[in-house]
Structure formats: C-alpha cells, structure tokens
Amino acid sequence: MIDPVIGKLSKEYEGKLNCYKLNTDENPDITTQFGIRSIPTMMIFKNGEKKDTVIGAVPESTLVSSIDKYVGR
C-alpha cells in the first residue's frame, strides 16, 4: 500500500535519499534491533544514525514532512 509512495519519493529525492525495503520475516535480528512491531514502518537515517520513525500507512505529506526535516529537496 505504501510502496508506490516510497517509490515516488525515492525518485523525487534522488541523489539525496536512498530507500531500502526490508523483509522483517527474513531479518528478525534487524527487526528486533530497531524495535519494529508494526508494518509498514519507515525509518529515516542520517549519517548512520536513526533520526525519525513513521509507523503505518500514512499520507505522502506526512512522509515528506518527516524527510524534509533532515533532507532538503
């Protein structure tokens, strides 16, 4: 449900943002490490540090607001 929005944003922020998808069933260690309890969960990292987390199928504008705090367009 959120995948098309993430795809669109990855193109809009190309060169400034990298988007990755993680299968939580296949990567339980990472899921536990970051406390992922709900899907979808989007995390924003900057310089290797987790800065923000957005949980749930939220509107595109919510994701843009979160991204723009750390990455300019």
TrEMBL record:
Domain Thioredoxin: 1-69
Matches recorded under CDD domains: TRX_family (cd02947)
The protein's name in its UniProt record: Thioredoxin domain-containing protein
Keyword Nuclease: no
GO cellular component term, pick one: cytoplasm
InterPro entries registered for this protein in UniProt: Thioredoxin, Thioredoxin-like_sf, Thioredoxin_domain
Domain of life: Eukaryota
Keywords: Disulfide bond, Electron transport, Redox-active center, Transport
GO molecular function, one term: protein-disulfide reductase activity
Keyword Cell inner membrane: no
Matching Gene3D superfamilies: Glutaredoxin
